[in-house]
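for the recovery benchmark. C-alpha cells below, seq after
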C-alpha cells in the first residue's frame, strides 16, 4: 500500500509546521504529502487560519527532495482554470516534477460567502468543474487550443511552459463514485479518490468506477482513499492521541463512544492494527491512502505512519 500524509491546512497550520511535517514525511519514507485547499476552517472556526495551498506546495518543493506534493482537493470555485493551471505547473517546475492535482467542485458555503466566491447550486458547480478539468488538462498537454464553453472562453491558448512531468501532471478526481463524477474521472483523471469509506464501500465504489471506465474503453482507474488516522505504539498511546484530538475538535461525550463512531472508516490503532485495515482496503481494490493527521505538531505519529509502508 502506498501511504501518504494528508494535512488539513485550514486549521491553523503554520509555515514552520508545514516544513516540519514535510521533512518528517520524507524521513519516514511516505510517498507524499497532500493538503486541503480551503480559505477557512471547515469546522466553521473562523478565528483559525490557512496559508494558500499552492504557494505552500511550491515552497515545500524547495525544502524536500523526494515526496510527492498535491491538493485534496482544489475547488473550481476559487480560481480561474488558467490561474490554477499556471500555479500547478509552476509548483511542478519548482519541485522537479513531483506535483499532483486534485480537483473538486467546492462545498463549504461559509468560506465562499466570507471571501466573496460565487457559490452556485450543485449542478452549476459541477458544470464549472467539468469545464475547468478540460481546460487545465489541455493546458498541460496541448500546444494550442480554443475553448468555447458555458463558463469560460479561451482563444488560441498556448500555455507555456508545460509541466516537467510528461504527458501532464497527474489529475485526481473523486467523490462517492456516482454516475456523473465517475464519468468525468473516466474521461480525464489519472486516479479516483474517495473519502472515509469502509472496505466494503471502497469495493462498491471501485466497481462503479470500473464500469464508467469500461464505457469509455479504458482500464479501471487506480482508486485511493482519504481517511482519518490515529496511531500509537500501544493502546494507551492511541487513547492519549484520541483524547487530545477529541478535545481539540470540541466533541462531547465519552471517549470510547466517540472512537467507536470513527472506527468503521478511520485507520485507528497500533501499527499492527492499522496494517490490518490497510490490508482490508487493499483487498477492496485501494492502491494508496492519504492518512489525515489532525495533530499537526505531533511528528512522532508521522514516523509511525512510515512503519505502515512496508507493513
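predicted aa per position
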Amino acid at each position: 500500500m502506498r501511504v501518504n500524509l494528508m494535512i488539513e491546512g485550514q486549521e491553523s497550520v503554520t509555515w514552520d509546521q508545514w516544513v516540519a511535517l514535510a521533512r518528517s514525511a520524507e524521513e519516514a519514507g511516505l510517498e507524499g504529502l497532500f493538503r486541503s485547499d480551503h480559505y477557512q476552517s471547515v469546522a466553521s472556526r473562523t478565528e483559525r487560519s490557512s496559508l494558500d495551498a499552492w504557494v505552500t506546495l511550491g515552497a515545500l518543493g524547495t525544502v524536500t527532495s523526494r515526496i510527492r506534493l498535491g491538493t485534496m482537493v482544489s475547488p473550481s470555485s476559487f480560481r480561474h482554470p488558467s490561474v490554477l493551471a499556471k500555479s500547478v505547473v509552476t509548483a511542478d517546475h519548482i519541485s522537479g516534477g513531483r506535483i499532483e492535482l486534485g480537483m473538486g467542485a467546492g462545498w463549504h458555503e461559509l468560506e465562499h460567502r466570507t471571501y466573496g466566491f460565487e457559490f452556485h447550486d450543485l449542478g452549476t458547480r459541477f458544470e464549472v468543474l467539468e469545464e475547468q478539468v478540460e481546460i487545465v488538462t489541455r493546458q498541460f498537454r496541448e500546444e494550442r487550443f480554443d475553448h468555447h464553453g458555458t463558463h469560460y472562453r479561451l482563444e488560441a491558448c498556448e500555455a507555456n511552459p508545460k509541466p516537467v512531468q510528461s504527458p501532464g501532471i497527474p489529475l485526481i478526481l473523486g467523490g462517492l463514485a456516482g454516475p456523473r463524477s465517475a464519468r468525468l474521472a473516466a474521461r480525464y483523471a489519472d486516479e479516483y479518490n474517495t473519502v472515509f469509506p469502509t472496505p466494503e464501500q471502497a469495493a462498491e465504489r471501485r466497481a462503479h468506477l470500473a464500469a464508467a471506465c469500461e464505457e469509455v474503453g479504458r482500464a479501471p482507474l487506480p482508486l485511493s482513499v482519504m481517511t482519518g488516522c490515529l496511531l500509537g505504539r500501544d493502546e494507551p498511546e492511541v487513547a492519549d492521541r484520541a483524547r487530545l484530538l477529541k478535545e481539540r475538535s470540541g466533541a462531547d461525550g465519552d471517549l470510547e463512544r466517540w472512537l467507536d463512531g470513527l472506527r468503521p472508516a478511520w485507520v485507528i490503532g497500533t501499527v499492527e492494527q492499522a496494517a490490518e485495515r490497510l490490508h482490508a482496503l487493499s483487498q477492496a481494490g485501494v492502491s494508496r491512502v492519504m492518512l489525515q493527521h489532525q495533530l499537526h505538531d505531533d511528528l512522532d505519529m508521522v514516523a509511525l505512519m512510515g512503519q505502515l509502508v512496508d507493513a
